[in-house]
Amino acid sequence: xxxVLITGAASGLGKAMAQLFAEKNYNVLVVDIQDxxxxxxxxxxxxxxxxxxxxxxxxxxxxxxxxxFKEVQSNHQNIDVLxxxxxxxxxxxxxxxxxxxxxxxxxxxLMSVIHITKAFLPLIKQNQQAHIVxxxxxxxxxxxxxxxxxxxxxxxxxxFSETLHGELNxxxxxxxxxxxxxxxxxxxxxxxxxxxxxxxxxxxxxxxxGVRAEDVAKDIYVGIEKKQFMIISHKDSRIQYFLKRLFxxxxxxxxxxxxxxxxx
Length: 264
Hints:
13% strand; seven-stranded parallel beta sheet; Rossmann fold; 264 residues
């Protein structure tokens, strides 16, 4: 049986991915800081007849990450799929974003991905068919004004993933980066610096997205099977992605117009 390790798997997209991988006959290693929710979810999976384990980890702590690796290594000889999903959101312009908020976002959304991947690479290299998925965001591509720290962190995840993809190709290890746009989650709860207008805009976008966490999870699973590097779930986002690549100045004017409208 294959092993998949998913951070932030007690809720939201992480939980949807864990459920799907369990249904695909993976042993699911649920990693989260929410112990009660994580343990409850693991029990639910077991009651459904699936194999699952819970591991506590604060992804912002290198000590926790090292302890997680040692604990997993003592139970398993390899990891077939590693999914770096856990993270937080933020919104605000450069003047609105405190140094503490910058540190929080870079630590939890970027450095955690780097630290966890580096820690688990020895186990991943045990399987030349292994795969790493880093959950970024379409925000890391669109770089919408007013989401400064979040954009920078997620763009960093995309850059890290692309570089890692090139480095691990010689070992047969796949790397994907998922860049979903808005879909219904508890994302707004972690937006410390966001204005009421921004939160309202995000909540509206999530409500009207027409995409669920389960849809994004399925796209990620298919992306792994097809060894895709860039996974973009939303049809509109795929169009926007190509628009930015082909007509960057047009894309820039469009997003500035949206930003100005939100802040009227």
